[in-house]
Amino acid sequence: MCGLVGMAGDLDKDDRAMFRQMLIVDAIRGHHSTGVASATSKRETKVFKKALSPLDFMQMRQYDDVVNWDSQVLMGHNRYATVGKINHATAHPFEHGGLIGAHNGTLKGWQALPDSRDFTVDSECLIHNISKNGWKDTIPKVVGAYALTTYCEETHVLSMLRNKERPLYFALKKGAEAVYWASEAWMIRNMAARCGIELDGQIMAVKENTLVQFTLPDVKIGGVLTEPKITKLYGGEEKKYIPPANVQYPTTYNQRAAASRSNGGTNGQVGGRASYSPDSTSPVGVVINETIRWVPVCIQKSFTSGTPFVEGVMSSHPYLTVRCYIHNTLHAEEVVRNWKEIESKVSAVSPINRPTKGDEAYCVVPSASMVRKGLVIEDKDIPFEEEEINVYTNGPGKQLLNRTEFAAKTKNGCGYCSSDLDFDDLIEWYGDDPICEACVPDIMNNGYTKH
């Protein structure tokens, strides 16, 4: 769960105060990261985001640079991580091709979207696709939960969209000078009252599967919002996994072995052909010893044996679960960390039951050996690159830091401007705060004492 807040129109200091307070209370929906974006009436945009809580985030000078007096659009997001790591890069909003967007929700099978290999989180992949291919081409391919707000620099249009799985509300300022939005209605109502802002009528929910688009005026001061454009837009539907109607799945060991042998498998392998295509009327099969391509997603453990396995989805059919059991945990971690796509030969096909829904799903289990770019990697220890010995940099209190220690102490970036720091950068330490070379003069001028 994440939170969306924002406003657009003729914004004054009371509006900016309201935006600040909405961003603070929105932290109850997500505390892992905070981000803001702004646009002026001249279509100049800025984005600032960090893996910090709102209160810490707002202490940075970049926040005031973005949430400025000339802002006509202010977009805020509080992230609770569900897909991808927690860092500055995975915080929202995302900007691609002149489109700035924030997303609340979790997508299913998003690896099937175009260019998904270039992204580590579903939200950024979604914003990229809307920017590149448009709303009408992208949303029908999207399965899962979503509430979206975007601003397009080229058209000067603010857009909102949600499906039934995520909430989104908006309200107009008295006189239609501005529009406010938030994931929860009380955030708009209470923060507007707190800042002395009068709303024009009731707070409205964005209707399900309805794209609401405001074309903003070309002037900030004195501009009035016109009626939004409304377009019905439906996302993709999650399909159930349906086994072939004319094939009864073998239930005993001997039946499974016989079915496997009849399809080219060996004694003890499970299944044979399984229909899993949710989009095709004709059955699509997976055959034992067939080579498939799949994307690793996470590491799980077997409930019965405790054996670790890499779980992923097929590249061509993201509705199909793929599990590769690997007895070496380090090998499994290496797969998930560094590999975006794997080629494997299928060793078993079996239905699995998901306790939450009870729907029957098919699981393809590849062999332990995996092929990537023609190189066979066996299930054994992978040699890791050892850290360079005797390579250190200065740390706080004159201690020496290796690369791992440096990364841990600088994970939040420069303590003054929050910019990312590299091991080879010139760093000054003030207490435990790393300060980049560009900010050292500012620190000295403000009277800081070097430790």
Gist?
With 451 residues, this protein is α+β, with helices and mostly antiparallel strands.
Percent strand equals: 25-35%
Structural class by helix and strand composition: alpha+beta
Number of β-strand runs: 26
Radius of gyration: 26 Å
- Termini, distance in Å? 41 Å
- The helix count comes to 10
Major pleated sheet:
7 strands, antiparallel
Q: State the shape.
A: flat
- In CATH, the homologous superfamily of the largest domain goes by the name Aminohydrolase, N-terminal nucleophile (Ntn) domain
Uncertain residue segments: 241-284, 353-361, 367-390, 447-451
Number of domains: 3
Q: Could you please say which CATH topology of the largest domain applies here? A: Glutamine Phosphoribosylpyrophosphate, subunit 1, domain 1
Strand order of the largest sheet: 3-2-4-1-12-11-13
CATH class of the largest domain: Alpha Beta
Q: Into which percent range does the helicity of residues fall?
A: 10-25%
The CATH architecture of the largest domain can be given as 4-Layer Sandwich
The residue-averaged pLDDT reads 77
Question: Describe it for me?
Answer:
- This protein has 451 residues and is an alpha+beta fold.
- It folds into 3 domains: 3-232, Aminohydrolase, N-terminal nucleophile (Ntn) domain (Glutamine Phosphoribosylpyrophosphate, subunit 1, domain 1); 253-377, OB fold (Dihydrolipoamide Acetyltransferase, E2P); 393-445, no CATH class.
- Helix content is 18%, strand content 29%.
- The chain contains 10 helices and 26 strands.
- Strands 3-2-4-1-12-11-13 form a 7-stranded antiparallel beta sheet. The protein has a 6-stranded antiparallel beta sheet with strand order 5-6-9-10-14-15. A 5-stranded mixed barrel has the order 16-17-18-20-19.
- Helix 1 (13-25) crosses helix 6.
- The longest helix is centred in the N-terminal third of the chain and has 13 residues, at 13-25.
- The model is unreliable at 241-284, 353-361, 367-390 and 447-451 (pLDDT under 50).
